[in-house]
User: Fold Lymphocyte activation gene 3 protein from Halcyon senegalensis.
Amino acid sequence: MRHRVSVQDSALRNGNFSLRIDPVRSDDAGLYEAQVAYNTEVQSCQVKLGVITVTLSPPSPVVENEPLLLNCNSSHQASLVETCWFHNRPLVPTSRTFCSLHGALSIFRPAMSDAGFWRCQLRYSDNEIISATYNLQILGFDGPSKPVVYVAAGSAAD
Assistant:
């Protein structure tokens, strides 16, 4: 972790002993302990770091109309009770197009309208709610709905 962690030396004088991890990886989850010795006094604290990941299969880039799977996993130890998926804010219903099962979301025929931010929300048996966001990008044609476009002579056409 040597190249991914830092402590702000300037903050130490103010009593801030924060550890920064960037980027966080799945295997960084676990218990962290800090010990600070000042004169004869030693103080310590423990922090448990939980990690949530959203993965895409197949990996990017996603091509329009080719099936994809978004998977949401967390290091939380309790039993998973419910998974909800949100696309650009609203709740995504389970339907023929979108299926959610144990943290996964399948989109069988992704369209350009499926691009954007997807948020998975995991609720566990201990009532812990954890969420993460994934920015889905889709390669495809986002043109006019009709194949004929009329343009005035002398104008530009896109």
Q: What stands out?
A: The chain has one helix and 13 strands.
